[in-house]
Write a structure and sequence with these properties.
Blueprint: H1 2-6, H2 11-18, H3 22-30, H4 35-38, H5 43-50
Length: 57
């Protein structure tokens, strides 16, 4: 999902291609780090940034 976004694929195209909810795609776009930096993170850290911090919302 992050790679698609980084390659300029629209949110709608990403949703259709990956069969995910648009809110899932929004999580990646609302993070303060640029996508290029998010892609450098290790999986546990990335999961925390994109998923766990949004559970309270």
């Amino acid at each position: 999902m992050l790679r698609l976004h980084n390659n300029g694929i629209s949110k709608r195209q990403t949703v259709l291609k990956l069969s995910v909810d648009k809110e899932t795609v929004n999580r990646a776009k609302c993070d303060k780090l640029p996508v290029v930096e998010l892609l450098k993170l290790e999986d546990p850290i990335l999961q925390h940034r994109l998923w766990l911090k949004h559970k309270s919302l």
